[in-house]
Design brief:
Blueprint: H1 2-26, H2 38-43, E1 49-51, E2 59-60, E3 73-75, H3 79-82, H4 85-92, E4 97-101, E5 109-110, E6 123-126, E7 136-137, H5 140-146, E8 149-152, E9 154-156, E10 161-170, E11 175-179, E12 184-189, E13 197-198, E14 203-208, H6 210-224, H7 231-244, H8 249-258, E15 265-268, E16 273-278, E17 285-286, E18 291-296, E19 300-308, E20 320-325, E21 332-344, E22 350-358, E23 369-375, E24 382-386, E25 391-392, E26 397-404, E27 407-412, E28 414-419, E29 422-427, E30 434-438, H9 440-459, H10 461-474
Antiparallel strand pairs: 1-2, 1-3, 4-5, 4-6, 7-27, 8-30, 9-24, 10-19, 10-23, 11-18, 12-14, 12-17, 13-16, 14-15, 16-18, 19-22, 20-21, 20-23, 21-22, 24-29, 25-26, 26-27, 28-29
Helix pairs in contact: 6-7
Domain CusB-like beta-barrel: 301-376
InterPro entries: Beta-barrel_RND_2, BSH_CusB, CzcB_C, MFP_Cation_Efflux, RND_pump_MFP
Domain CzcB-like C-terminal circularly permuted SH3-like: 383-443
């Protein structure tokens, strides 16, 4: 109290001297109500002096206004009344004030109340707000203003979709070629052209071959012979020669029933499919090995897609695939991965994957461009959090755990697969723990700020103590 009285007396004398100086410089008369005996006046309840309402270092012995028209504030000889209302609240607060930090967020702290160069009061930090356990505490008002939202970590399957381009190709197992095994002549060709859809057993052409005619005559002579000894074995050999010449089985069966060797042999389609190639022309000569027809069954086709090297670890045989053809907007085709080719293209850094697709309406055609979406979801559930909950700096991945009552704990985690808006947490978080999913960057910034303030306070304890001592003497 003695120190306060000395201070107020000095301020009053300073204000009086300032007033006298102003009167002397301006040449004006001394105010009639001026009283330089401020301590005596203060005894009857009158103000000791008047201070600037904005906190500037300016005082007056008499009431006055500042440049903005605001009244100067009276200061009484009362220690409780002399303190600002904010300091009164702090003094009456039940919680302990640890220190005061810069209101603009600068790394500057003080052990006692003070103002910054702009006249703003330093912000008090209470016991419990700034802990050493790594947590950050926010007031309910700040949480509401920043829009902080939390969700619990849960177990669920990660749905990761790998996208890759590709083309439609024929199933190599469903292609048939009609070629002669002996020198032949095409006598007649059916009304079949390239692109025609044919059925198994449908006539394609009639050919004449001297080798087939001789083998047929020999076989018929054998089965018509009345010789008993060795006839059965010899007949089987003659029939096998017809089979070796690729004579269709229905033709051989018809010969056995009619016991007549045909002059020409009718060739039929070996399978259902599309005629991809037609080289047979009436009257032409066909040498052994010449391809006359090529037929492919496209009711089942392949989609050969190129998967990026980085995605090969998530792709496996049997995974379901969704195919979208660029020719059919809005239509999808379903299939499964059948083969992953064991080679990576050194130029494109991709590996080829084969997908088998059902094509009953022949909508998918060879060499058609398609886009594949491979679902690499694992049936086993894992601990996941939303994408927005992870703070990823490249070298560090962390989440903010909501501890309740406005406390948030930054925690390092190890990530796994990503997909469907979720990220797998392999280590650092348990199922059911709530993590911040919205405004987490603001909380992280608050955490970094408080860590910097703590480091600054630890690095400069003497300056704060000295400042507090000086401030206490001033008070």
């Amino acid at each position: 109290m003695k120190t306060l009285r000395l201070l107020t007396t000095a301020l009053a004398l300073g204000g009086a001297l300032a007033l006298v100086g102003s009167w002397y410089l301006n040449g004006g008369p001394w105010p009639a109500h001026a009283d330089l005996t401020s301590p005596a006046a203060a005894a009857d309840g009158s103000p000791l002096y008047y201070r600037d309402p904005g906190g500037a270092p300016a005082w007056s012995a008499v009431p006055k206004k500042d440049a903005q028209g605001r009244d100067y504030l009276p200061v009484y000889d009362d220690e409780a009344a002399a303190e600002p209302p904010k300091l009164q609240q702090q003094a009456n607060a039940s919680r302990k004030i640890l220190y005061y930090r810069n209101p603009m967020g600068l790394p500057d702290t003080s052990a006692v109340p003070k103002k910054d160069p702009m006249g703003m009061d330093y912000v008090p930090v209470y016991d419990g707000d700034d802990t050493d356990d790594g947590t950050v505490k926010l007031s309910p008002g700040k949480i509401q203003r920043t829009g902080v939202k939390s969700e619990p970590a849960e177990r669920r399957s990660i749905s990761v979709v790998v996208k890759a381009p590709g083309t439609i190709q024929l199933d190599e197992r469903r292609i048939s070629v009609i070629a002669m095994r002996s020198e032949s002549f095409v006598q007649k060709v059916a009304d079949v052209t390239t692109g025609t859809r044919v059925s198994a057993g449908q006539p394609l052409m009639e050919i004449y071959s001297s080798a087939i005619a001789a083998a047929a005559a020999e076989y018929l002579a054998t089965i018509n012979s009345k010789i008993v000894g060795g006839v059965e074995f010899y007949g089987r050999g003659s029939r096998q020669r017809l089979t070796n010449l690729d004579v269709p089985e229905p033709v051989i069966t018809a010969m056995e029933k009619s016991r007549v060797a045909p002059v020409t042999v009718q060739w039929t389609a070996p399978r259902d499919g599309i005629v991809l190639e037609r080289n047979a022309v009436e009257g032409m000569r066909a040498n052994p090995g010449d391809v006359l027809f090529r037929i492919a069954d496209i009711s089942l086709v392949w989609a050969l897609v190129d998967v990026a090297e980085r995605d090969l670890g998530t792709v496996a045989v049997g995974q379901p695939v969704l195919i979208r053809a660029r020719s059919f907007a809005g239509r999808t085709f379903s299939g499964k991965i059948a083969v992953i080719y064991p080679q990576v293209n050194r130029d494109t850094r991709t590996a080829r994957v084969r997908i088998e697709l059902s094509n009953p309406d022949v909508a998918l055609l060879p060499d058609m461009y398609v886009d594949a979406e491979i679902n690499t979801a694992d049936a086993s559930p894992v601990v996941v959090v939303p994408d927005s909950a992870v703070l990823d700096t490249g070298a560090r991945q962390a989440v903010l755990v909501d501890k309740g009552e406005g406390k948030f704990e930054p925690r390092d985690v190890k990530l796994g697969r990503r997909g469907g808006g979720y990220i797998e947490i392999r280590d650092g978080l348990k199922e059911g723990e709530a993590v911040v999913t919205s405004a987490n960057f603001l909380i992280d910034a608050e955490s970094n700020l408080k860590a910097a303030l703590r480091g600054f306070a630890d690095a400069h304890p003497s300056s704060d103590a000295a400042g507090g001592h000086a401030h206490g003497e001033h008070k």
